[in-house]
Design a protein that fits this description.
The structure holds 2 protein chains of 2 kinds. Chain A is α/β, with parallel strands linked by helices. Chain A contains 5 helices and 11 strands. Chain A has a single domain, classed as 3-Layer(aba) Sandwich (Rossmann fold), CATH 3.40.50. The C terminus of chain A is likely disordered. Helix content of chain B is 54%, strand content 10%. The chains are: A alpha/beta, B alpha/beta. The interface between A and B is large, with 75 and 104 residues. Bound molecules: iron/sulfur cluster (SF4) (2 copies).
């Protein structure tokens, strides 16, 4: 590797000699996003050519997947404990091979109403982000309680954990391009479809209320 | 290199009606969509102020934030390199590719790599980097620079792309549907992805606090280039750093809405570590930026987040194409950025402007482009950088505008000329204005004479009317 420390010190020297007088950092409010989070999420995801399905329970969502994922001689890659595909991320020590995946099924723990985005990281993708990029169809489960209003709230939720993830991405619809005469084409080089399966679940027990460790 | 004549290049594009109309329409639509989405957000203008202030804050503490970024990125397992010049930038990357015996590399749109002509550099040394973004790939196959920083091939019609793909990728020249053409591109790139050994990418935001990078894109190519190959190299200018991860939310909310009127890009990706088994490098480029930072007139240009909104709105850019600027950065931001790279070559770009002010109004980080255009014209005139004809014009104008007396002489001369010179001379190349305008009927007198005759007296009276008299009249 080339030693670039000389360039580094020259650059820093020039910056220090010439930088403008200090400007204070402003405080950025945590802007929210008005309206119903889940409805906004669906509307926005559809605007990005994504699809959304709502279910009363996770079991219903899984049952829907069983029926609607294309199984015929195809590779279905699942990272869900309760939905078995034909392969999982662990079968892809070499991510180049992910081009043979027809459908990938994962779960997101953060959705954004403002943009219809789904947050996915190495944690949800089994350490092989390529399964969500090189597959044809991407199915993402999400508990509707995990959908927040806007992007500021979303970043506030992940700002302390994102750094641990090599890859973390807000997916907003399937890949797309408008590079030829600005005609919108869905299915550029990443996944060609994205379906969010939004399920309701009974509220998890209130944290802290009955837990023996609570109260401090 | 010779001076870029944007006016001449642009005039050629203006005559090409189908291309010009499509360019204008596509970009104006993007501008209108931008207005729609911006108007739906009550805090939009406040966000622009904040985005501008964060950039100003960061730039005024740039050494601190770059150090913090370097420290955190290194702790995350990322190798950081520094480059003062394009040459250094390219050599660092070339050596990395060589050490890894790379034969297939893909790149997702990076402006700094374009700025350094990285592709050209490695090609001369027998290596080929595939542009993986559709627009960039079209331009690479056509051996042309990008027309626009966000939509690089937007000056082309679908037939152009169909013909190009037929020639280079063997597709059907008669099918011009963008869906089909996108499919051709997808199939072509998929074959590459099966064996890419290195991925290259740009950086939208480098986060000092966490040592990670954020890249916003639509097609998926950038993410694939980032996580599939065993070697990842990102390239960024020193101005790309911002203090906090929470700050990214603000910029992401502004970026794509400003660029195309879309609420977000399909992929808003953060890389904080290499993938297991992968090696990751970031090359941080100066190339004149630290010098720009030291210019009190000019440092604000470093706030630019490369959204392209100024191009979409610019009446000159939309009708003359980005290619006419013969520059990596084109349109309004190009007019005020390129002269700092090469004053002589780009001295005329700041004149490709009607002073409508629109670029300044839409810029999400409030780069004062209209003011900077005047700044660069001043520099050009002071340093006599324009080519001979323009330099002579500027000198003559300077002489004439020096005092009201010399200006009055100039007016009289012009009126005399309009009355007495033969028509053929008035319509000749000496007066390019007459190319597309009819010369006016010579008026009876100059405006100055007319004004003297009719208003001079009133002006005198106004001056001597005392305040008391004025007030009593109004009571
Ligand atoms: S002020 Fe000049 S550069 Fe800016 S949009 Fe108007 S014409 Fe274009
Ligand atoms: S100057 Fe402003 S509007 Fe133009 S590309 Fe940069 S950030 Fe966007």
């Amino acid at each position: 590797m080339i030693d670039t420390s000389k360039a580094r010190s020259a650059i820093f020297e020039r910056i220090r000699a010439g930088k403008p007088a200090a400007v204070e950092a402003p405080t950025v409010p945590l802007y929210g996003w008005p309206g119903d989070k889940v409805e906004n999420f669906i509307k926005q995801l559809e605007a990005f050519d994504g699809r959304a399905q709502r279910f009363d329970s996770r079991a219903d969502a899984i049952a829907w997947l069983e029926k609607n994922v294309d199984w015929r001689n195809k590779r279905v890659c699942s990272q869900l404990p309760d939905f078995k595909g034909t392969v999982s991320a662990a079968d892809y020590p070499d991510p180049h091979k992910c081009t043979d995946i027809s459908a990938t099924v994962v779960e997101s723990h953060l959705g954004v109403g403002e943009m219809g985005s789904l947050y996915l990281t190495d944690a949800e993708l089994g350490g092989v982000p390529a399964i969500a990029l090189l597959c044809l169809d991407l199915f993402v489960l999400i508990n509707e309680a995990d959908i927040v209003d806007g992007l500021h709230t979303a970043y506030a939720a992940v700002k302390d954990t994102m750094r641990e993830q090599p890859y973390a991405c807000f997916f907003s619809g399937p890949s797309a391009t408008a590079d030829i005469e600005a005609v919108h084409v869905t299915g550029a080089q990443g996944a060609t479809s994205l379906t969010a399966l939004i399920y309701s679940a009974p509220q998890p027990p209130q944290r802290g209320s009955s837990h023996p460790d609570s109260g401090c | 290199m010779s001076q870029v004549n944007q006016v001449k290049n642009g005039a050629r594009f203006i005559k090409d009606i189908p291309h010009r109309e499509s360019h204008d329409r596509c970009l104006w639509n993007a501008r209108m969509r931008r207005d729609q989405t911006a108007q739906a957000i009550p805090e939009w203008e406040e966000m622009r102020d904040l985005a501008s202030q964060i950039k100003e804050h960061t730039l005024s503490h740039l050494d601190h934030y770059l150090e913090e970024f370097e420290k955190n990125a290194t702790a995350n397992g990322i190798h950081i390199h520094w480059a003062e010049t394009p040459e250094e930038h390219n050599e660092i990357i070339y050596q990395l590719l060589k050490q890894h015996n790379v034969t297939t590399a893909t790149t997702g749109k990076s402006m700094t790599m374009d700025e350094c002509d990285l592709r050209g550099y490695v090609e001369k040394r027998g290596m080929y980097i595939h542009e993986a973004d559709l627009g960039e790939c079209i331009q690479q196959l056509d051996n042309q620079m990008p027309d626009h920083i966000v939509v690089p091939a937007i000056h082309k019609l679908r037939q152009d792309v169909a013909t190009l793909f037929a020639k280079k990728l063997g597709s059907d020249p008669d099918i011009t549907d963008p869906h089909y053409l996108n499919g051709v591109m997808r199939a072509y790139m998929r074959k590459k992805y099966e064996k890419i050994e290195a991925g290259l990418c740009g950086v939208n935001f480098a986060i000092a606090e966490t040592g990670g990078i954020c890249v916003c894109s639509n097609e998926g190519d950038v993410d694939i280039s980032q996580v599939v190959p065993p070697l990842l190299i990102a390239s960024m200018g020193i101005e790309k750093v911002i203090p906090t991860l929470q700050g990214v939310a603000l910029y992401v909310r502004l970026l794509s809405r400003s660029a195309l009127g879309l609420d977000i890009t399909q992929y808003t990706t953060h890389i904080h570590h290499p993938q297991p088994g992968q090696e990751m490098h970031i090359v941080i480029l100066d190339n004149g930026r630290s010098k720009r930072l030291g210019s009190p007139d000019y440092w604000q240009v470093l706030k630019c987040i490369r959204c392209g909104a100024c191009m979409n709105t610019c009446p000159v850019f939309r009708r003359t194409s980005g290619l006419s600027y013969e520059a990596v950065y084109m349109g309004p931001i190009g007019c005020v950025l390129m002269p700092s790279y090469d004053l002589h070559r780009y001295a005329r770009l700041p004149y490709s402007c009607t002073h409508c002010g629109s670029c300044g109004d839409v810029c999400p980080v409030k780069v004062p482009i209209p003011e900077l255009i005047f700044y660069w014209r001043g520099v050009d005139v002071d340093k006599h950088q324009s080519e001979k004809v323009h330099d002579a014009e500027e000198t003559a104008a300077e002489l004439m505008l020096r005092s009201s007396k010399t200006l009055a002489m100039g007016e009289n001369m012009a009126l005399w000329g309009l009355r007495n010179l033969p028509q053929w001379l008035l319509d000749s190349g000496l007066n390019p204005w007459a190319d597309v305008h009819a010369n006016p009927e010579p008026p009876k007198e100059t405006f100055r004479e007319y004004y003297r005759r009719n208003y001079k007296k009133i002006e005198f009276m106004n001056k001597t009317t005392d305040l008391h008299g004025f007030l009593s009249l109004n009571l």
